[in-house]
Amino acid sequence: MTKTDLHAIKLKAFQQPIRCCNVTAIAYGLTALGYPTNIDDIFYVTRLPIDTVLDDGMTLAETYDTCVKYVEEKNLPISVIVEHFDKASMTLESFIQEIERAIYDENDIHILNFNVDIAHEIKLGGGHFSLLADYDKTTQEITIADTNPKRYTRFWKCPAERMYLACIDRDSASDRARGMIVLKKVESNEQKAQDPELMSAI
C-alpha cells in the first residue's frame, strides 16, 4: 500500500503554546519532511517578536514570510509557496486535485490556514493552522494533523468541501482569504522561496 503524508506526520508530535499555531505548523511541517525543528528555533532564528504573535496572531502572509526567513537563514533545501484561496483558479475541484496529489508526495507538506468555526461546524473561534495528513477519495474526507491536539485532538477528519469553505473564509486581519502554505524539498538551495502567485501543481 502506498504511504500517505500521515505516515511521516504521525511519527512526530507537536503541541502549540498558546496562540502559536502558525509557528507550530511551520516546525511540525519541517520536522515531518526530515528537518527537525522546534518552536523556539523559529522564534530565535527569525527574531520573531513573541508579543506580536501572542497578542495579534499572524496572517497567512506573515506566517509565509516567517517560514521563508527561517528556511533561508538555516539554508534548508526547501521551497515555500503560499496560496491565498481568493484566487479565481483556486476552485473546489483544484483544491481536491491538489490534496489528492499531495498526500502521496513524500517531498512536500501542506499547511492549511482555515476558519475553525466552519471546519468544525461549531463555535470554537478564529483562524487556525494545521497540517494536511491524508485524504479518502471514497468518503471525500481529509485528515488533519492538528497543532493543538489538547483542544482539537491530534487527528480529526473533515469533508474536503467544508475545509475548502473554511480556507476561502476572509481573514479580517489581512482582508484576504485564508489558504495554505506548501513546504517542498528541492534538489538545490538556489531557490528557497517561490513566487506566491505561481503554483504549477494547481
Automatic annotation (TrEMBL):
It comes from Amazonocrinis nigriterrae CENA67. Its EC number is 2.3.2.15. GO terms for biological process: phytochelatin biosynthetic process; response to metal ion. It comes from the Bacteria. Keywords: Cadmium. This is glutathione gamma-glutamylcysteinyltransferase. GO terms for molecular function: glutathione gamma-glutamylcysteinyltransferase activity; metal ion binding. Residues 1-188 form the Peptidase C83 domain. The keyword Manganese does not apply. InterPro entries: Papain-like_cys_pep_sf (IPR038765), PCS_N (IPR007719), PCS_N_sf (IPR038156). The keyword DNA damage does not apply. Pfam families: Phytochelatin. The lineage of its organism: Bacteria, Bacillati, Cyanobacteriota, Cyanophyceae, Nostocales. Transmembrane segments: none annotated.
